[in-house]
Amino acid sequence: MEENAEGADAEIEEQVAASDEVQRVVGNLERQYDDIMSARQSDEGAEALLAGDESELPTADELGDELERYLAERERGGEG
């Protein structure tokens, strides 16, 4: 399973590196996360981002399925 995860990580890195658009999206998400964490630390101390109920968060499979749908739609030339 660890080999599969490493392979998936490498594939994701390749896909991100191959697309300027994906690089911008990832960069924006990273900046948003950093901004949220900075605001939380200054407002509430070092409380974790996911300190509340995590039961409503999507699973890894759900996130993967959504990413696959998005990439398939892009390949077909759709706007998502």
Derived structural class: mainly alpha
The DSSP helix count reads: 3
Poorly predicted regions: none
Radius of gyration: 16 Å
Please state the average pLDDT score: 80
Write down the overall geometry. extended
- The total strand number stands at 0
Helix/strand layout:
Elements (H helix, E strand, L loop, with lengths): L1 H16 L2 H25 L15 H16 L5
Can you give a write-up of this model?
With 80 residues, the chain is an all-alpha fold. Helix content is 71%, strand content 0%. It has one domain. The protein has three helices and no strands. The longest helix is centred in the middle third of the chain and has 25 residues, at 20-44. It is extended. The model has no long low-confidence stretch (mean pLDDT 80).
Short structural description:
By secondary structure, the chain is mainly alpha-helical.
Keywords:
80 residues; mainly alpha
